[in-house]
# Entry
Amino acid sequence: MTGVADTRPGALAVRGLRTVFASPAGPLTAVDGVDLDLAPGEILGLVGESGSGKSVTLRSLLRLVRPPGRIAGEVLWGGRDLLGLRPGELRRVRGREIATVFQEPMTALNPVLTVGRQIDESLRAHTGLDARGRRARGVDLLDLVGIPAPATRLADYPHQFSGGMRQRAMIAIALAGEPRLLLADEPTTALDVTIQDQILKLILALRARLGMGVILVTHDLGVVAQSCDRVAVMYAGRIVETGPVAALFAEPRHAYTRGLIGSVPRAGGERRPLLSIDGTPPGLGARPAGCAFHPRCGFATDACRREAPPLAAVAPGREAAGREAPGREAACWHHAAVAAAGIEAPVPEPA
Amino acid sequence: MLSAGYVLRRVLQMVPTLVFILVVTFVLVRLLPGDPLSAIGGDHVTDAQVAQARAAYGLDQPLFAQFLLYVRRVVTGDLGRSIVVQVPVWSLVGERLPPTMLLSGMAVAIGVGLAVPLAFASALRRGRATDLAIRAGAQVGLSMPVFYIGLVLLTVFSAHLRWFPVGGYGDGWGDRVYHLFLPALTLGVSLAAVLMRSLRAAIVDVLGAEYVDFARAKGLPTRVILLRHVLRNALISTLALLGPTVGSLLGGAVITESVFAIPGVGRLMIESIYGRDYPVIQGLTLSLAVTVSLAFLVTDLIQASLDPRVAR
Ligand SMILES: Nc1ncnc2c1ncn2[C@@H]1O[C@H](COP(=O)(O)OP(=O)(O)OP(=O)(O)O)[C@@H](O)[C@H]1O
Ligand code: SF4
Ligand SMILES: [Mg+2]
# Structure
């Protein structure tokens, strides 16, 4: 996918994104050369184990990593490099063109301002509405994300909201500027299944109505199957595999993805680690040489230990027999062997 | 917003404090050397006159009864009479209180006015030259005694540059503010040093909060982020410090008023200690203690109105 960057409005092309945190023990590379492409209105799932760098990647796109974090690479938004923008220009992109939902609903809202105020300030920054218009819109937004009695809830402080309500309030705030791209970091984790479903439907509806693209970080492959067009799998700060959801789930081309899919709950709901991934992901300071996954990989060879495989297009495999599966890429020396091994696990059921 | 119930509860909480203040000021006079009457008397008093005077002041009654008597007098606004100048203590204090209040008010304004921008400059340039310079300055401000700061300012701005009068209180508001500027700066500088340190720490803390990142992600203007999101939260913890600081501010005022010859309660306190004017000392202690607890009340109420999480 390191091809030509899509420069249409609403398209995102990330090239060589690297985010490094300085530490007393030396630099820690949280994001290690990530490439991503998103067509306008596309929904991309970003999955991977805890600590693989999903949140840092999202924050890096809008330069929301704080010191000692340093971001390098290119984030082309409609052809403009966000990493090179002046602060004033970047501020006009944040919230208005690209909105963010943070992972931590409990701490992302200011405890001393009412929820209404926190929606209002976004509307003030990004719309020309007057005070009455903003209030009406605030009520609409809370209603949209399924908060009951929205008109009275506007006057509440965050601590009067449950975790799930705070997460929805955060989504409401993010939607205030009617963004063209939503960066949603596990937006549904604190929510029960009904509400989760409602939020995902809302996101799909907004995509249809506004042409809003989404990068959806999630641990839940069921959510990916239900709502994403494409998926990117992260491991140890890198994208190890991308492709259309159905094709990638049907025939993973990277050993890590294969393990990930194998550990998804089956139709019955109980989590059965069919192809469990042994071991734990490497720490930031202790990334193995070569393919970072090799210590945990059953397919690993000397080549894997020596040199890191680049993310490269993989030839359509068995799954392409009869249908087209474009844009498949994997960073694995032995992707053909991984594909040939197949998966014993079923494709994850939509939630 | 604060509920009337919260304000009422917080005011009622002051009752034990006030009782404590009354006990202390009552005991204070009894601990001072000599009988209060010997200070008035001199050599020519007879035993009968002493007994009569004792009865008149209620000094022949049991201690507890005397205390109740004292409380009743204080509550009805009778703080006794000055032994030295023979006027009611209340009118003496009432006359000397306004300069001190104006001085303290100006000092708080200067202190906060200096502390907020310096704390921001320091916190936002953490670890760089600006930060180190500001913190070193605050350290110097903290370690210099108030009277020394006063003397330095007096020497530079009054004696040499002649920008400000060397002391006194003026006539009319403008003139008074002008006269009180240097002394208020003296107090304000040491107050700023205390507030700056605490506010800087609070700002550094708040800048690390997730909601500040979220405010940035929303594309809010920097000014809004710093004032609405950062300062407001940082002030909540710093305000807790402002109440107790008013106590030391009044202590500083006593010294500053002497250095700058301001006719405030600080000077009155020193004069009456020299003159052993016990009723004045008692009345002053009482009024200052009440003032300090009112300052606590006000900062508490401001803090509560800023922080929705405290029960109110
Ligand atoms: N400010 C920071 N300073 C130093 N290291 C950081 C910082 N922020 C994140 N990291 C490290 O970067 C790595 C990636 O973190 P990140 O939060 O992106 O993971 P994640 O994929 O979002 O995980 P999770 O699924 O648990 O949210 C982690 O090892 C984390 O400890
Ligand atoms: S490159 Fe080698 S170690 Fe890495 S996933 Fe592929 S087979 Fe396993
Ligand atoms: Mg995360």
In short: The pocket of magnesium ion (ligand 3) is lined by residues A 54-55, 103, 185 (CB under 6 Å). Chain B touches chain A at residues 208-211, 213-222, 224, 228-229, 232-233, 236, 306-309 (CB under 8 Å).
